[in-house]
Design goal:
Layout lengths: L1 E4 L4 E4 L7 H8 L5 E7 L8 E7 L19 H14 L2 E7 L1 H7 L1 H14 L7 E5 L10 E4 L2 H4 L1 H24 L5 H4 L5 H10 L10 H19 L1
Parallel strand pairs: 3-6, 6-7
Antiparallel strand pairs: 1-2, 3-4, 4-5
């Protein structure tokens, strides 16, 4: 068993209790409903930060088929899980924070703010909150930051799917608005392919200027334009 401080006493979570183990342990302690929250896009240098929040029902008819950490699922499996979560969740919410606000706040502050907003948007107020990696204050209820929470808690895994699918769809649409960057492929993350396009074209309006590689690419682009104009 794993013993955790739940903020209102200690709870025991059996290691083999499955993905709903945290929710069941908290329910035994009288802490229900339990909401989970997670984000997508924290490490990307382009596009929005997206946060999801979810409260799930632990009944056979409303469990989400194949639910797990969204990063471990295929795109098709994530889409199927997304549709199930929207249909079966007790409550769910998604918040999209644009790249400009990420630049204004800084990524860590933006991350916490997005998670907080998603949790506040839930139609049903939770009695307890589980978040992936980072604790979130200002919720008015106790909570626990769980390391790799999207792999061990169903509500956090559901939140990760909501956030990931929403963000991926936004980035696929961004390919039409900002052609040439291949946003539909790398989704704005700092891949070698993305960097090549960024260096060639310079930043576009959805790039995050707090990222050093974006500022460097802008400088390279400006120098190239100056040299061209001198010819």
């Amino acid at each position: 068993m794993t013993e955790r401080d739940a903020g209102a006493g200690r709870i025991l979570v059996r290691r083999n209790s499955g993905l709903y183990g945290y929710e069941r342990a908290l329910a035994r302690a009288g802490l229900t409903p339990v909401a989970g929250a997670d984000e997508a896009g924290r490490g990307a240098c382009a596009g929005p930060l997206v946060a999801g929040a979810a409260i799930l029902a632990d009944t056979p008819s409303r469990r989400i088929t194949g639910l797990k950490d969204s990063k471990l699922m295929t795109p098709a499996a994530r889409d199927r899980a997304y549709d199930e979560i929207v249909a079966k969740a007790v409550a769910w919410a998604v918040v999209v924070m644009p790249s400009t606000e990420c630049d204004e706040l800084g990524m860590h502050v933006a991350n916490i703010a997005a998670l907080r907003r998603a949790l506040h948007r839930l139609d049903i107020a939770p009695s307890y909150v589980l978040t992936d990696g980072f604790g979130v204050d200002g919720l008015g209820v106790p909570g626990l930051a769980v390391w790799k929470g999207d792999r061990v808690a169903a509500c956090v895994a559901a939140a990760s799917v909501l956030a990931k699918v929403t963000r991926d769809r936004i980035m696929v649409a961004a390919e039409d608005e900002y052609p040439g960057y291949d946003f539909a492929v790398h989704k704005g993350y700092c891949t070698a392919e993305h960097q090549e396009k960024l260096d060639e074209l310079g930043p576009c309006p959805i790039h995050r200027w707090r990222f050093e590689n974006v500022r460097r690419a802008a400088s390279l682009r400006e120098n190239a334009v100056r040299q061209r104009d001198r010819v």
